[in-house]
Amino acid sequence: MPIFEVEINGEAYEIDAPDESTAIQSIDTMRGPPQETYSPTAGMSGLEKFLAGAGEAMTRRAMGLGQLVGMVSPEQIAEQQRLAAPLLQEGAAVAGGMVGDIASLLPAALIPGAATIPGAAIIGGVTEALTTPGGIGDRGTAAALGATGSAAGQLIGRGVSGAMQGMSGLVEPLTQGGRENIVGGTLRRFASDPETAAMNLQNVQQYVPGSVPTTAEAAQDLGLAQLQRGLLSTPEISTGLAERAQANRSARYQALARLARSPEELEAAVRFRKEITEPMYERAFASNIPVSKDSAEELSALLKTPSGKNAIEAARRLAAEEGVDIAKDLAKITSKKLDEINPRALQYIKWGYDDLLDTPTPQGALGKKAKSLVRGNRDRLAQWIADINPAQAKADKAFSRLSRPIDQIKVGEYIMDKYASELSQLSGVGETPTAFTRALMQAPEQTVKSATGQRKTLEQVFNPKQLKALDGIAKDLARSHAAKGLGLVPGSPTAQNLSTQNLLRRTLGPMGFPSGMMEESILPTMMTGAKPLQWLYSAMPEQKIQGLLSEAMLDPAVAAQLIQPRLPSLYQRTATGLANVPTYPVVGGIMGARE
After folding, report:
1. Verdict on whether the full-model pTM lies above 0.70
2. Where are the domains of the chain?
3. Residues 574, 575, 580, CA angle at the centre, nearest 5°?
């Protein structure tokens, strides 16, 4: 019979058979009934397959890293891949593998910069190159895919975040809460130090009745001062700022006017002092005063000093100017036979001491030490007069007491003149803060002397309530002009079309552009192309926003509430999170499933 050569299970056999069909039948008989193929996953539940897939992914990553350092051989990797092949045919195992990959790569998300696009690309590329099993080619391909996928994943997250925030920004101008968010965000964006500005706005002091500081003045913040300056070109807001500035200037002027009072009041005070003290002095000067020997010697010693001699000469001139002859009295005062004295002559000598303190001598102005000695001698003379003529001392005390209101009016008028220009006296518009500050703070004694002719301090002229009013005017004026000075710092603040700006910032913000590029280049360019949107918002929403901004810039209490960051909604937190969550572990999980 013919011999047929056949192969069974990889082995060759020779079979004798009458024909080929008989040989084939013989082969089937030798094979026996077909046997069922065994699967390693047989009998595993879905959860078990999921967990096994997660374990396989972690093992694969660990072996890839081990191969890189020589701890795992290519043969071991090949064997692991062969054993895992049936498992990875199961969907549950594939899903578990993705989770295992993500869990393995989560530490990479903690690396600084992982949420940025460049950072994600670097981390994704390097991690894939380190943990992918195989040769250089396999690792290089994985690194390229890891870098590209991670950057793309981060970009997609930011895009979705921008879209979500853009939708929020689209409707914000239409609600009161949304408009408050926009204006509050504007204040925070302009403020150089939002936290300090907010604290200052919550602790505003009113220094002058009727003078209410603007938000920029109360906050004393460079950025908000620039914002106020920029808003002067916005018609909806500039009018309110101008009216506030005028009202505050008027309040300060009126506060000073209350100190200076009127010429009629000054005349009345002078007349009242004369009516009270003139009879008192007439009684005190009615007759000569007896002088004891000891008192005469004390006076003689005092007036023989250089300052005493100069005071007598000054007294002679003053009396002559008033047509009073006291020559004999002055000659008697300097003699040793003084037994009585004309009290009027003593008054002229005391005035002579006052002139000596205020008027330079031919040798020049008195030095500090000389003035101290002369003032001491003058005080000794005043006490000597009070001891021998109590009526004159009483008249002097009344004169001094009634002179204080007169001095207050005179000094008040002088300070007001330094504060206000001639124009402000008519309309309350102009202010000269430098001259006012100099008069009040830098040379107060010179101010009193210029106004009254006397060497006194402001504390000797004004009562505590008046001093507090002057201090309040100075602080209020300083606060106002400090804000103006801060606003003059170069800058180009703009707070127009806030609705459109808010929408673009929300949409583009998550993309991670540098703030300088965003504000100076990208946003202005986008605003130019957003004219239809600006027109859409230009009606009611933008007007209400500008009105709220005007209210916030004029009322520190409103600004203090709006400038505080608000707790974002769940929607906003989700949108923000999508831009800031590292996506590489997810991308790595997808790549692991691909492998």
Report:
1. no
2. 1-33, 169-248+495-580, 249-462
3. 90
